[in-house]
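Board notes (copied after class):
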Amino acid sequence: MILENKVHLKKFLLISIIPIIVFLIIGNIFFFYQYHSYTQNYNNKIASLVNLLDKEYPDIDRNELISILNSDDKVSEDIFSRYGIDIQNESIIIENDRLFSGFIIVYNILFIGLALSLILLYLKHEKVQNKEIKKIARCIEEISKKNYSINIDENSEDELSILKNELYKITIMLKEDAENSKKDKLKLKDSLSDISHQLKTPLTSINIMLDNILDNPEMDDKTKEKFIQNIKREITNISSLVGEILKLSKFDASVIKFEEQQVFINDLVKSAISNIEMMAELKNINIEVNNRDNIKLVCDAKWQIEAITNILKNCIEHSKDDSTITIDIDSNKIYKQITIKDNGEGIDEKDLPHIFERFYKGKNSSKDSVGIGLALAKTIIEKDNGSIKVDSKKGQQTTFIIKYY
């Protein structure tokens, strides 16, 4: 991530500009004073020469003197060499050499002062940065110890503060993950407890029936056959429970990938009805479908058929014999809808909020129910961008409403 806001660096640069500006101002004043001093010295010496010429040669033309002073003509260096003056390396005016030496000393002092100021500012900036880095390092050390209660929130916008803000966000995420992990562990513990309880009952029943068969070798065939059928039923229930749990665990682990395809909702409903046809016939339950054949849906057909099948199973289990289950298929611009309505015993008001919870068994649940079919149906529908809700009137009917968006 490129950190664009560098407030500390900006502050450092702004503070650094101050001594530079001060140095430039003082330097300009210094050079102006130097020029003024040189000019004054030269003017004084030339004035002395002009005064001498004016006394020695009173008839000299003053305009001629001024013309000579303002002329660009250069005089031969040999003239000065006669007086022992090397104009290449020496100033004609000795006082200017002295001034120049003093100016050089002052200029170097100013430059060294500027350099020291910048170094001190840099060291101060580094000290602040190092302090912040150590603070971040301590925070990371605490986070590595799973201490997420530290407060490292920062409102400024320099790169280290942005880093601290990002670290704070990560801390919040890790804290939430740790809390969610704890909740998941408790949930897993409860689920394992529920699974153990669900398996314990049929296994105990199977064990008792097998003991009866083994302990009574002369048991009549009719009783033995009844025990075997009951054992078979319990094994089927266990197999069904294990299968449903495995499916739910796969969804929890996000290892199931839906294969989306365009299908007719009517075909999904027909396939689900065929899965529970025998179950409905045993109770002489009629299933009516009111639909428009041209309603299409993009989904994973196999899983949605399973979800609808589980809902229909629940409706059949709680419907009266010789009753009717109605399925309405409809759509609008926002969603497609499947409404499944039975004419059964209804759901108790206290059970209604928990009907989609895993292993929840309401007052009217059958003895073979494991309380996982509706939970699986809800998971499948929601994973495929859908929603499901239930309305029920005690002693009259239950309505499941499935919407696909």
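Comment from the instructor: Residues 159-215 form the longest helix (57 residues). The mean pLDDT is 79.
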